[in-house]
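Summary for the lay section of the report: proteins are chains of building blocks that fold into shapes. Here we show the chain for Putative metallo-beta-lactamase domain protein and then a coded description of the shape we predicted for it.
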Amino acid sequence: MWRVASTTPVEPTIHAIFETNTGTWQYLVSDPATSSAVIIDPVLDFDRTTQTVSTRSAESLLKTVAECGLKIEMILETHVHADHLTAATYLQRHLAQSQGLNPPIGIGKRITQVQNLFGQRYGVPLAEYMTVFDKLFDDDETFKIGNLTATAVHLPGHTPDHLGYRIGENIFCGDSIFHADIGTARCDFPGGSARDLFRSGKKLLSLPGHFKVWTGHDYPPQERETPRPWMSVQEHREQNKHLKDGTTEEQYIALREARDAQMQAPKLLHQSLQINIRAGQLPKPTEAGHRMLHLPMKFQGGEW
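The coded shape description reads as follows.
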């Protein structure tokens, strides 16, 4: 876990918790003056071998919340993730029990496009995803975390609904910019766009150079080994392998699209999308008591 303490009344204290199986950074962002806090992009654990959902990562977050005496005001998603399951609903229910509150789950207003697309693709009943998010943010909408002011920033490219959250001199950018030695996220999901992601990246790198960019994932190469949750805007301008100063839009698009063409689908793609359009709610059980997900099949050889 990383911890960056508040240095002024307008800056948050940040706990960054790394989930190693999916390389995901989860965040607790709090106002030290009031102990109000938000959770960003929490993980629900899933074992592909046994098809078992567990709450180890979520319980770790809850433990930190309790130890720090934080009051969770909202659970924030940057987008519908395709590589891990969200623990948003699980945390919402357990925080309601422990704190007597029901922290809303927030996401960008374009989420309905993504929900409808994947709801139809996987045969998810409309009633299981249409009202699961409590707060749909407008672009550049501001909101409060205790005495702190936060802003929802539209950062399309990886997905069309993607948001970042600017809190003080920090921006939590989700799956847009990664560590400088990785560059940026893929853009080959439905609704993704390398052109949009280039422009979102440049929006991020137009912030003051000392601002911290907190990423959604890290996959450290062998020469680095240790995951790192943030780099400064200036570090990205100088070092980001995809977006450093001098990179043109057309250069970026050619590089990103060539890279995406070689990438395999995320290991938890189908499980993640079906759970995450539901904000982390599990499918309703069948009469036999099973909670079912749909997995598409591919055929080789003759026609069926």
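Put simply, here is one thing we learned. The chain has a mean pLDDT of 95.
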